[in-house]
Amino acid sequence: MLKRNKLFILLSIVFVLFLSACGNGSEHTSIKLAEVTRSLFYAPQYVAIEKGFFEEEGLDVELQTTWGGDKTMTALLSDGADVALVGSETSIYVYAQESKDHAVNFAQLTQTDGTFLVAKEPKPDFTWDDVKGSIFLGQRKGGMPQMVGEFVLKKHDIHPHQDLELLQNIDFANIPSAFVSGDAEFVQLFEPTASVFEKEGKGHVIASFGEESGEVPYTVFMTKDSYLKENPTHIEKFTRAIYKAQQWVAENSSEEIAKVIQPYFEDTDLDILATSIERYKNQDSFATDPILEETAWENLLNIMDEAGELPGDAPYEELVNTKIAEDIMNE
């Protein structure tokens, strides 16, 4: 009788382990995610990973940083990534090339520009006219930071290529150091670099391009049209995890968010992370839901057109999918 009980217990354990192994194999899906850069601006994405929201959806997300819009889209289109987090303007550039399998924007992460105007010297009485005649260190031609920068300057009756000396020959990663060592009086910087410069006395934040330019689909999760059609459930689970993270970020303090995402910014002090996140929260940079509204899309097209970078038609109904996000929000 004792041997029979032992055998029953052993068989039960083996059966449970077998079911567990089968369950793990069927429930978890690998998603290759390419982010255009490592940025505090993408805080909700790191929250989704660190708080286990992807895992709750049965997703194993493999995050890679691809450093640049062109490289990120190459990774997506060549199946090096299933999902890309990148500026939505890149999907427009791909569509204009008459791609047979274009990229579809399905979940918005940030809804404003993420750069700040930083000056070498304090300017307590700053007006945009102060920029005229200056040496201005800009961003890459055709990228969202530069297009938004030019849009804001024109909004204040400043022609970026006539009324100032605009420098655009510096790689994105080297812009901060070039500003410190060079002659430029103004620069566009993302956080946490802007706050670090303030703390170290290397620069002074005097204006926000995000506040000046209004709502725009600045960084968006996208996938190929074919992947979306073949794997709708994967994208649905991915979007649900992002929505959970967006809500968590909206409901928690900048200090708490900073603690969660600090592993992604090990070289940055916790207080700088919190200050930077607070700046973004105060100007509503983090989208609180994944829906990319048509009005924001039209603002993007206007910004691109003003910069002379709009390559052609960019139909909202073909390049943006809101149904997945809407269904999730209505659950």
Description of the structure:
Belongs to the bacterial solute-binding protein SsuA/TauA family. The protein contains 16 helices and ten strands. The protein has two domains: 29-112 and 216-329, 3-Layer(aba) Sandwich (D-Maltodextrin-Binding Protein, domain 2), CATH 3.40.190.10; 115-213, Periplasmic binding protein-like II (D-Maltodextrin-Binding Protein, domain 2), CATH 3.40.190.10. The protein has a five-stranded mixed beta sheet with strand order 2-1-3-10-4, sandwiched between helices. Strands 7-6-8-5-9 form a five-stranded mixed beta sheet. α6 links the parallel β6 and β7. The protein has 331 residues and is α/β, with parallel strands linked by helices. Mean pLDDT is 93; it is low at 13-25.
What's this model, at a glance?
The protein has 331 residues and is an alpha/beta fold. The protein has helices at 2-27, 43-50, 53-56, 69-77, 89-96, 144-155, 175-181, 193-200, 209-213, 225-230, 232-251, 254-261, 270-282, 294-306, 316-319, 323-329, and strands at 29-35, 59-65, 83-86, 103-110, 115-119, 135-137, 165-167, 186-190, 204-208, 219-224. It has two domains: 29-112 and 216-329, 3-Layer(aba) Sandwich (D-Maltodextrin-Binding Protein, domain 2); 115-213, Periplasmic binding protein-like II (D-Maltodextrin-Binding Protein, domain 2), CATH 3.40.190.
Looking at this protein, list some descriptive labels.
five-stranded mixed β-sheet, signal, globular, single chain, 2 domains, ABC transporter substrate-binding protein, 331 residues, alpha/beta, D-Maltodextrin-Binding Protein, domain 2, 10 strands, 16% strand
